[in-house]
């Protein structure tokens, strides 16, 4: 998302969404024209080769691309000594005031075959784009399900809010346990 232009030759980013796709992410960004002179050809000129442009409407552009998977983190070094949820708690708790929402749900079991129960905890983070660069994000045991970037130029800038807001949702997974 760092490479994604917020505004480009008469077009403004509305939102961007990424979802897991194999070992990476499939991403799409929606743009709307903000200038009567905005031209699709000008928007396309000089874009990165792996970005694909489509035009669902006269004043709309969609930009699609794929992104790599998770990045390693310095916190990962403690993975062998600490449960994965403890890593997440330690990484995120100091940054509560930098996010509009920082939530970790309770452990829940969902039995597939009646004999083992995979355990998971839902994760949901929402806040200014800048806040997502503060913590050292643990990568162990998480399956991300949704990443969304929204642009709201009218949003006031505070510690927990910004015109560029990110929503990240996923689940923290623990190894399956036997059910007696």
How does this structure look, described?
- The structure is a single chain.
- Strand 1 and strand 2 (11-21) form a beta hairpin.
- Residues 71-81 have low confidence and may be disordered.
- This protein has 2 helices and 10 strands.
- It is mainly β.
- Strands 1, 2, 3, 4, 5, 6, 7, 8, 9 and 10 form a 10-stranded antiparallel sheet that branches.
Element layout with pairings:
Layout: E1 7-8, E2 11-21, E3 24-33, H1 40-44, E4 52-57, E5 60-67, H2 84-92, E6 101-104, E7 108-109, E8 116-128, E9 142-151, E10 164-178
Antiparallel strand pairs: 1-2, 2-3, 2-9, 3-5, 4-5, 6-8, 7-8, 8-10, 9-10
Q: Which class do the helix and strand fractions yield?
A: mainly beta
**Low-confidence spans: pLDDT under 50, at least 5 residues?**
71-81
**Alpha carbon gyration radius:** 19 Å
Q: Helical percent range?
A: under 10%
The ordered string of helix (H) and strand (E) elements is EEEHEEHEEEEE
Characterize the largest beta sheet: strand count, sense, and whether it forms a barrel: 10 strands, antiparallel
User: What oligomeric arrangement do these chains adopt?
Assistant: single chain
Approximate strand percentage:
over 45%
Query: Distance N terminus to C terminus?
Result: 46 Å
- What sort of overall outline do the alpha carbons produce when their principal axes are compared? globular
Report the average pLDDT across residues: 84
* Count of helical stretches: 2
- Secondary structure: number of strands: 10
């Amino acid at each position: 998302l760092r490479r994604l232009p917020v505004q480009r030759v008469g077009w403004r980013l509305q939102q961007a969404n990424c979802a897991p796709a194999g070992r990476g992410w499939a991403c799409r960004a929606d743009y709307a024209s903000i200038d009567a002179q905005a031209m699709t050809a000008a928007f396309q000129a000089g874009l990165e080769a792996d970005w694909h442009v489509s035009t669902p409407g006269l004043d709309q552009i969609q930009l699609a691309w794929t992104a790599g998977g998770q990045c390693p983190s310095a916190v990962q070094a403690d993975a062998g000594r600490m449960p994965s949820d403890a890593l997440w708690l330690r990484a995120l708790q100091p940054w509560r005031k930098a996010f509009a929402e920082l939530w970790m749900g309770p452990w829940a079991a969902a039995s597939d075959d009646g004999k083992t129960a995979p355990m998971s905890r839902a994760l949901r983070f929402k806040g200014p784009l800048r806040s997502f660069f503060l913590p050292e994000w643990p990568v162990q045991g998480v399956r991300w399900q949704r990443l969304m970037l929204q642009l709201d130029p009218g949003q006031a800038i505070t510690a927990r809010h910004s015109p560029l807001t990110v929503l990240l949702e996923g689940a923290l997974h623990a190894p399956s346990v036997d059910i007696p």
